[in-house]
Amino acid sequence: MEAKEIYARTERKFSGKVSGFQGDVVDPNFRVEAQAIVEVCRYLRDDPESNFEVLSDLTGLDLPKENKLQVVYHLYSYSKRHQIVLKVDLPRDNPHVSTMEGVWKVANWLEREVFDLFGVVFEGHSDLRRILLPEDWVGYPLRKDYVEQEEYDGISTQRAPLVEKLLR
Amino acid sequence: MSEAPHNGGEAFHTEDMTISMGPQHPSTHGVLRFIVKTDGEVMSEAIPDVGYLHRSIEKIGEKVTWHGYVPYTDRADYLAAMFTNQAFCMAAEKLAGIEVTRRGEFCRVIACELNRIASHLIAVGTFGQDIGAVTPFLHALRERETINNFMEEICGARLTYNYIRIGGVGYDILPETCARVTEFIDHFEPIVDEYNRLLSYNKIFVERLANVATITREDAFQYNIVGPNLRACGLKWDIRRDIPYSVYPELEFDIPVGAGEKGTLGDCYDRYIVRIREMEESCKILRQCLKMLPKGPAIAKVARKFKPPAGEVYVRVEAPRGDMGFYVVSDGSEYPYRVRIRTGSFTAMSLIDKISRGLMVADLIALIASLDVDAPEIDR
After folding, report:
1. With CB atoms counted within 10 Å of each terminal CB, which end of chain B scores lower, N or C?
2. What is the pTM of this model?
């Protein structure tokens, strides 16, 4: 099914909660309201016409200029061979969105990664802990304004300038 | 196991034990840890703990130029560096609308398929080693050594290639190398049979793997299992055929799928045998490519100051560990705005918690080996 048609069907079902369809780009995408994302995904998975069996990817995108954090969902259907990209805009200072675990189990780890690196809180998540970084790490590295802490557990994270290193 | 009662009588009772397996366990292929809760040999859960090899490759992508990022992608999956190179370059090309030269495409496919054989050799070799058969590992590494020599001839490096560039490939493949690769395939195809006799149809090996840690198709969809692990569940799905890229549509090859031939569909044995058969298919692809290799430049003209227009793209390539996705966002500047690498090992790891319940500790080793997870690819 064409991306346009997928959007039209979704809009009929969830009018007012989806918007901003972009169809003339490499990967067609549209925006979904944060409150409706789980319902929209469940509908797209279960509707026999769209039948998105897998969540290919779930990731974040930091847009400080527009003061928002985006969570990007890539859905794919093996049987229908089509893809759609959903985006949820969240405020940067308090990003909250419901977990997708109930629809696709893979979201568990993917959401943990987004929480770890972007600081997006997934409400209702069964095990929201850092996954790649240590538990006591400060900050969210993939945010654009991230400043690395100067030391971690007494180990400096700064590299000495080369000359100083040679003089020592 | 003996027939003695596990929990017989009031005075005799067992307790759950929590063991930390890893991060330096020999079967974990890198640095990777499991927190195993077990009662005797049977586990009640095995929780993976990842992140030991996190090198923030995604963040580095925002700090270096488009051309400069290609060598970093090598490090995302060191066993299959060609594929990460190719995926990132394809993303950049799609954003900028660059057409890869025809010879460049063929060089890419030749390099990638050689790399796939090398990666699968490690997968099946260490598989044997992990569950106690050491000899096949040496046989597999012997053949991989030849492929490493080819890689050195093609691009000067044996592990982290930095061969595929935006617009084509870094160096042309010489006719002498082509002749030697053909010679190698002639030699390698009978070796696969030898390997089968040595390991694949070995009764002990088969009985060790059949019916162990079965992954159903529903689980594969729920956890987004990709690549050979997905095909072992019986789904005929290969990005090279189904979302075609490069020159794969012109090439003829089969897609091996699991059939539950020794046990149930989607068990460890199916995941193993799919990889063996994929190596044979890669040989077929290589033969065709070497015959069809056209003349012409190996790389298209690409500006040194590469600035693709703003936009975003998600590309997939069929890497040895499955669908490798690169989600790349450009804001029109010299540096990528965001690079996201989605790998097959990461999602495969998240499934282990579910599948491992009720398995024996020794079968966990077989499960990890059969999924062919690669720690640097999980952690990036």
Report:
1. N
2. 0.87
